[in-house]
Amino acid sequence: MADKGEFGAEAKRLEGLWGGEFGNAYTERNQAAGSNRAPFWQAILKDFPARCVLEVGCNLGANLRWIASELRPEAVYGVDINLKALQELRCGLPGVNALYSPAKELPFRDRWFDLVFTMGVLIHQPPESLPAVMAEIVRCSNRFVLCGEYFSGEPVEVAYRGETGALFKRDFGSMYQQLFPDLILRKKGFLSKVEGWDDVTWWMFEKPRA
Ligand SMILES: C[S@@+](CC[C@H](N)C(=O)[O-])C[C@H]1O[C@@H](n2cnc3c(N)ncnc32)[C@H](O)[C@@H]1O
Questions:
Q1: Per-residue pLDDT tens over the stretch 59-82
Q2: In testing the pocket of ligand 1, which one of 13, 59, 87 has its CB within 8 Å of the most ligand atoms?
Q3: What pLDDT is recorded for position 3?
Q4: Which of 123, 158, 159, 196 reaches 20 to 30 Å from 168, CA-CA?
């Protein structure tokens, strides 16, 4: 178990990576990342009605663009630590709330959103701070928690664009259930490359009523 200093140092290093040139380059490369995602988000919002939604690690809005076309943009929130991505999100989706925040300290009240989710973001959290990030996501949701991430039955680090300690696959669904045993699994699925995703496994959980 890392001591507090290590925990802070590794989380800070990765936040710096995503907040700098590395994150800017990701944003440049992924301008069209959301083009095939409409059917997934339409189905999710039909099956799991939400009036107010937060994406943690939203980048330029590849998911939020579809959510903002179903809900009032003012009810749609995204946080990220890359300022270029947030700027592009503000230009591309006027009215959507684009806020700078590290995932491990979300600037919202408990249960503020109906749905809080990540898509390809938990994989980029260091193991030491991952439980804190998940706890923040669960804290801010009043009802639904969704994560879509790369799956591996056993935790495994994968080299990512020349960086070490920057991408970890694991069973994020089981981890949510272990850390927050009150969460109820409502649905699980897989989004393949053929469908325009990147072989992403997703889990939709529901919190018990307050
Ligand atoms: C792989 S991208 C995924 C973007 C988007 N969720 C999607 O599905 O297209 C990861 C995003 O999470 C952001 N991110 C990574 N670590 C973060 C952290 N600790 N706090 C907030 N945002 C973070 C990055 O800046 C980047 O925009």
A1: 999 999 999 999 999 999 999 999
A2: 59
A3: 43
A4: 196
pLDDT digits (tens, 9 = 90+) for 129-175: 999 999 999 999 999 999 999 999 999 999 999 999 999 999 999 99
pLDDT of residue 7: 63
The CATH number of whichever domain residue 97 belongs to comes to 3.40.50.150
Q: Where are the beta strands (DSSP E) in the chain?
A: 53-56, 76-80, 97-100, 113-119, 141-149, 156-157, 168-169, 184-191, 200-206
d(CA 135, CA 122): 12
Which pLDDT belongs to residue 53? 98
CB 139 within 8 A of CB 78: no
In a domain? residue 158: yes
Distance CA 23, CA 47 (A): 33
Atom of ligand 1 nearest to the CA of 55: 6
Beta bridge partner(s), residue 156: 169
Structural domain span for residue 79: 4-26+41-128+136-206
